[in-house]
User: Fold this.
Amino acid sequence: MRQIFCSSATDTAVAIFISVNFDYQLDRYSLLELYKKFGLEGYQDIFGRIVENVLKIEATKHTASAFFTNRTTIGLRLEDRLRAEFIPQRIYAKVVAFQMLEIKLPREFEIAVSENKLLLKEVETKEIERSRKIVEWTTTLLQKEQRVAVDLKLAEATAAKTVVQAKADGKALVTQSENDAKARILDAEAASQTMMLDARSNAETRVLQASATAAKIMKEAQTEAELLVLQAETYAKKKVLQAEAQAISLTSESTAYVAAFEKAQDQQSQSFVEVWKALGMNEDKFLEYQTVKALGGISWKDWTIMNKDKTPFDLL
Assistant:
């Protein structure tokens, strides 16, 4: 194992100091040739110069900043170059391990590199923040778009529901109006039937009343006619009696009969005057009295035959 310190320059002519550590193994089959060619101790210096040359050459192939950002990659390239130089056929040894220990740059460059790193880190942070914001904004935009789509669907559903409800309400109103119209028509028909029945009933009632009134009038006329007949019969009997009295007057007894009759007539006249006065000279009462007196000689049987519905007491 051996540690080598080497100073070189990058491809941008920036001074650089590199420290490496590598392990090598001598080829046991070529030791004699090694000692003959380089001596017992001289091969170590040769190995050191070979490593320095490889480091210097490889350092010029990279930028100063690459030794910070791509250190691992550069270390692997250095190891590959050393393994290519250390082969038994050439220097009677081979590299078994390699490690790049330290890299130093000028102070000003290190400060600039540190600042650049900070800037790069900040840029990286900004990029990450930008990416995160883009993701957030994209997610928010997608959510808003989805929300708009959902709201649109809800609005369409609400509008469709409103239209269906309006159609249902309109249909219900039309049906209700039709039912109300039918109910009113039925009520009007029922009222018309009731009015017709009432009219028929009133007409029948009036016909019955007219029939009853006519029957009553006819009955009263019949009664008056029967009374007139009775009066006529009474008057006829009276005339018969007078005729008989006149016939009797032709005989020898007619004078006394006539005198008696005249006396009776006088008494009757006086009696009529007294009755007329007693009745307060009321013609209706006097006529009623005369009627009762005229009917005084009619038997109950004769009366009931002529007047089936009335009795003599109905005249009182």
